[in-house]
Amino acid sequence: MRIGYTLMTEQAGPKDLVGYAAGAEKAGFDFEVMSDHYSPWLNEQGHSPYAWSVLGAVTQSTERVELMTFVTCPTMRYHPAVVAQKAATVQALSDGRFTLGLGAGENLNEHVIGRGWPPANVRHEMLAEAVQIIGGLFDGGYFNYAGDHFRVDSAKLWDLPEQRVPIAVAVSGSQSVTRFAPIADAMIAVEPNASLSQEWDASKLGGAPSRKIAQLPVSWGEDRDAAIRRAHEQFRWFGGGWKVNAELPGPAGFAGATQFVKPEDVAAAIPCGPDIDRIVKQVGEFEAAGFTDLALIQIGGDQQEAFLRFAEDSLLPALRG
Fold first, then answer.
1. Residues 6+ apart with CB under 8 A from 51
2. What pLDDT does residue 228 have?
3. Which end of the chain, N or C, is less surrounded by CB atoms within 10 Å?
4. CA-CA distances (angstroms) from residue 239 to 231, 232, 293?
5. How confident is residue 147, by pLDDT bands cut at 50, 70 and 90?
6. Cβ distance 105 to 38 under 8 Å?
7. What is the pLDDT of residue 265?
8. Which CATH number fits domain 2-320: 3.40.50.300, 3.20.20.30, 3.40.190.10, 3.30.590.10?
9. Distance separating alpha carbons of residues 146 and 125, to the nearest angstrom
10. How much is the mean pLDDT over the chain?
11. Which SUPFAM superfamilies did the record assign (predicted)?
């Protein structure tokens, strides 16, 4: 399984993220994913730069690692035709190292344009149309589209990269797997669910296995108690699950929804402290569930350089061993 590093825009500013990207490549990570948010989950995280500007800079500060959005919502803040243009540009800048990760989005980021927040079934309809539009533009030439949610009139990508941009889509259950497996190149999920992986491969055209990409937060640090406090302060939102997380409109909502989450609750779900074995165990659960790629999140914007040294010296050799 390929091991990646998360450039988490919610916990670092743009210049720091570009530096961490270069550091993660040097440390030996196989790929890097970047979140695409308008707002952090919690005020304590404190950041949210524009992911696509940062990605452009990262293409020039790295040479080897694959890059990926994890994930972009191509339905409200961004029209899918514009997402296709951005993805093609990043692919050209990175010499073919980019994968476009897409998802149905969260109210946290999409409510800012003032159009309201549609129910989950409508969001999936919109995402399916967006994938069709993006794929059509990647085909080259002028493209027109008239759907229930989007219209595209005579659009063309004038700078298509030599290598077509692969599309990965975030799924959470059978309904989304059935809808997106036939039209996407790879699957994104956040839980080590073997049945989800199997259903994805079975739903692919021809039943061929494809990439399945996941993410795991860790709060590494020599002081376990400090690592637990940091994880609780900045990542207690994670335990709500995506059905809840997609609906809350802002950091205040997440603070209220998680006010009774205890540090020990977070520590039970997220590896905290210096224990490599627990990280290896939880990574192994994703591998056993059929995932081909896993991106680690180190919690804490001021902990990244120390974590990258730890990853290079100890963690990555342990995972690959």
1. 9, 34, 35, 36, 37, 69, 72
2. 98
3. C
4. 11, 10, 22
5. very high
6. no
7. 96
8. 3.20.20.30
9. 14
10. 96
11. Bacterial luciferase-like (SSF51679)
